[in-house]
Amino acid sequence: DLVQALTGRAFPAEDAVLKDFRKVECSGRYPFIEPEVGAEVSGRLLRGLDSQALARLDRYEAEGELYLRRPVSVVVHGGEQPCQTYVGIPAAVLALPREEGDPLLAARAPR
After folding, report:
1. What is the pLDDT of residue 73?
2. Distance CA 53, CA 46 (A)
3. Which of 87, 97, 98 is nearest to 21 (CA)?
4. CB 3.0-4.6 Å disulfide test: which of 15, 45, 53, 84 passes with 7?
């Protein structure tokens, strides 16, 4: 599990749906989500993240450079749940060199 590898901990997680966002996937580039009315993205809601875990995830996601952590609400078990997610900065993500695999993983991993 990537989150456990990055944070050194496992967190409870459950399936969730983020409404009014779409997933953008381009061959050889990092996927990201961006707002789009009427779209939805399935994912996982992680519970119990502390500030240390969030700092490590922010580093991995290059928060402020490639992605922005934003408050959103997701649907879990039919109800709305406030949380945060990483929203792509399209110009930044798409400006990265086109490579297969994850060339930034080592640079973005916690030390």
Report:
1. 97
2. 11
3. 87
4. 53
Question: Does pTM top 0.70 for this prediction?
Answer: yes
Phi-psi region of 44 (alpha: psi -120 to 50; beta: other; left: phi over 0): beta
Which amino acid, residue 33? I
Q: Strands across the sheet with 67-76, in order? A: 32-46, 13-24, 67-76, 79-88
Which residues are 2's β-sheet partners? none
Longest CA pairwise span in the chain (Å): 40
> Residue 109 has what DSSP assignment?
S
In the chain, % of residues over pLDDT 90: 75
Q: What is the pLDDT of residues 35-74, one digit of tens each?
A: 999 999 999 999 999 999 999 999 999 999 999 999 999 9
65 CB neighbour count, 10 Å cutoff: 11
